[in-house]
Amino acid sequence: MSKEQRTQVSAMLRQPRPDGSRSVEAIRAGFKAMMAQMVVPDGLRITKTTLGDRPALHVEPGTEPGTGTRTGTRTGTILYFHGGGWVFGSPETALSLTGNLVARTGFTAYSPDYRLAPEHPFPAAIEDTLSAYRALLDSGEDPSTIVFAGDSAGGGLSVTTCLAARDAGLPMPAAIVAFSPGLDATRTGESMDTKAGIDPFFTRESLGHTGAMYLAGADPHQPLLSPAVLADLTGFPPMLLQAGTDEVLLDDSTRMAARARAAGVDVILDITADVPHVFQSFVGVLDEADRALDRAALFLTQHVRTPDTAATSAR
User: Fold this and answer.
1) Is residue 162 part of a domain?
2) CA 150 from chain center: how many Å?
3) b/e per residue, 157-181, with b = 16+ CB within 10 A?
């Protein structure tokens, strides 16, 4: 990563913000404006739809000019959960990440617009993401061709939705990819303190402000809120966790990886030096973002069992 790239990203993330706790409306507007600067691949087919009784975006690979044939399409569906602290964000703000995974894998993706706090606190988001997964299964999609992915709070949802699906007796998806996931509402990771002042995006106070909206008085000491320290991950699919060294949530990923390993789950912990929270969003700006998305796409394509791969493995 060049000094110029670091400087550009740092300047974007360290822009002066108003003192004190901001309103929900201000937080949502600020995040939307920031994410509108991220690069979305050209040529994608993006349509609004409904999944599990919630609005969603359907993102598909582009089409060959004049043919209507989608380019590089492969069997596979990404269920992508956007970030935003369970309080802000939308499928549109995550389009850079969703779109780049679609472009790199050839899979299609659905990104549900799950309900947000404080209007709809825990467990509304998990209810909606589980409903989206159930809708894909009910439509006839094979779970071996479905993967969960998400960033930040959405990365946390990729794990907690798996927990909820397992508890509901549903089959597991083929894999999980989580970018800088939020996996510990107890905020007990050492990085919460060791990375204070280094993280250009979050502070303990800012996380506490939005976290309280999502908790709405719920005890954070439960698996669906703090899976990195409390969840039983038995039977989970393979996981790829990506994080940067410059984020206070780093230990959410390191402890989740250790917990997965102890439960016998295949897990890859992918930590990149000197990059911020959800650095993958800066594709086209940070070289590390492009390389991380390439690794994530490879992981997903390796774990989705298409008819072709199933026939090959049976020989």
Assistant:
1) yes
2) 1
3) bbbbbbbbbbeeebebbbbbbbbbb
Q: How far apart are CA 23 and CA 192, in angstroms?
A: 23
Token pair for 273: 């030096």
- DSSP letters, 262-288, are HTT--EEEEEETT--TTGGGGTTT-HH
The catalytic position among 96, 144, 152, 226 is 152
CB 306 within 8 A of CB 147: no
Helix (H, G, I), strand (E, B) or coil at 294: helix
Token pair 């201000």: residue: 26
* 226 phi and psi angles, rounded to 5 deg: -135, 60
Assign 314 a pLDDT band (cuts: 50, 70, 90). Answer: very low
Indicate if 247 belongs to the active site. yes
| Chain centroid to CA 43 | 22
Assign residue 7 the CATH number of its domain.
3.40.50.1820
**Arithmetic mean of pLDDT, 273-281:** 94
The residue annotated as part of the active site, out of 226, 277, 281, 303, is 277
Tell me how long the chain is: 315
pTM above the 0.90 mark? yes
Residue 15's CB is within 10 A of a number of other CB atoms, namely 10
Residue 9 lies in a domain: yes
Active-site pick, 90, 111, 226, 247? 247
277 in catalytic set: yes
| Rounded Cα gap, residues 294 and 240, in angstroms | 12
Domain-located, residue 85:
yes
184-198 confidence digits (pLDDT tens): 999 999 999 999 999
Asked whether the beta carbons of 78 and 102 are under 8 A apart, the reply is yes
On whether residue 314 sits in a domain, the answer given is: no
Q: How many domains is the chain built from?
A: 1
> What domain range is 223 assigned to?
3-308
The tokens for 173 are: 């998806």
